[in-house]
Amino acid sequence: MEFTKGHGTGNDFVILPDPDGALDLTPGLVAAICDRRRGIGGDGVLRVVRAAKHPEGAALAGDAEWFMDYWNSDGSFAEMCGNGARVFVRYLLEIGLATPSGAALPVATRAGVVRARVEGESIAVEMRRPRLYDTATATLGGLTLPGTAVDVGNPHLVCALPAGLDLAGLDLTRAPDVDPAVFPAGVNVEFTVPGDPVDDTDGHVLMRVYERGSAETLSCGTGACAVAAVALRDADRDTGTVTVDVSGGRLTVTVTDDSCWLSGPAVLVATGELTPDALLA
Ligand SMILES: N[C@@H](CCC[C@H](N)C(=O)O)C(=O)O
């Protein structure tokens, strides 16, 4: 089984080309591939399949040729992955499955069609505008933090740290406790502190994230979008551009009246051959 490894600000993925949807991909195989000691290692898997050939992509095949079949490292599905979409597009372009052009490149996902464009070394993806829909808390150790629930296609809870606490001090080796009544399908939790002003943007936030299905990761693109939307709300703004520093680098998020652009580096670092039987032994 052929694979490529890639990442966006350290959020890393194993990319599996499967144009005709023929791979027998199971939660167990995804977890084995993502195992950092016994497998390739990754925060998730991106299966590259023609939209027309995937049951969840077929309805979108008229709008996008390719479907991003995203899986978390524990073998669960997610509706959307912002960094994954950026790495997916880098892969399509480098392998020649899509041609660079002035027009935005559509990609089908479980959260609908997103559009991507190349911006120098970065890939930017346009997703739905984040929807702030509730308040909730996250408890980590003895600390309970209020936060804002945000829908970016997938669920997020954005919690600002109180003054005096720093991000580096958080223990994210285990999942924060959240209210399952608010998040029946689980949630990705972002912890934030304000950053110093950055030229040309309307806000600057530093974050760490504990991802549903993948534990702590170095970056979460949809999480950065959620964080940016909360920062703009707190600044009494509906739209604007926010710099979001994640553990693995820098992302830029622009929230418009009806969408959200996520921009940052997306790189491919290796290709090779997987042996599913050995991974599952
Ligand atoms: N890292 C991703 C989000 C991946 C999905 C998430 N773990 C979930 O289950 O919703 C991103 O860059 O957005």
Which descriptors would you attach to this protein?
mainly beta, 2 domains, DAP_epimerase_DapF, Diaminopimelate Epimerase, Chain A, domain 1, binds the ligand N[C@@H](CCC[C@H](N)C(=O)O)C(=O)O, 281 residues, isomerase, 15% helix, 13-stranded mixed β-sheet
* Overall pLDDT: 97
* CATH topology (fold) name of the largest domain: Diaminopimelate Epimerase, Chain A, domain 1
Strand residues, percent: 35-45%
Question: For the terminal residues, how far apart are their CA atoms?
Answer: 16 Å
Helix and strand run: EEHEEHEEEEEEEEEEHEEEEH
CATH architecture of the largest domain: Roll
Q: Please write the CATH class name of the largest domain.
A: Alpha Beta
Instruction: Label the structural class.
Output: mainly beta
Low-pLDDT residue intervals, each spanning 5 or more residues: none
Report Rg: 18 Å
Small molecules bound in the structure, each named once: the ligand N[C@@H](CCC[C@H](N)C(=O)O)C(=O)O
Put simply, the count of helices is 4
Task: Give the CATH H-level superfamily of the largest domain.
Answer: Diaminopimelate Epimerase, Chain A, domain 1
Largest sheet: 13 strands, mixed
Could you estimate the helical fraction of the residues in percent?
Answer: 10-25%
The total domain count is: 2
Q: What's the count of strands?
A: 18
Shape: globular
Keywords: Amino-acid biosynthesis, Cytoplasm, Isomerase, Lysine biosynthesis
GO biological process, one term: lysine biosynthetic process via diaminopimelate
Organism: Micromonospora inositola
Subcellular location: Cytoplasm
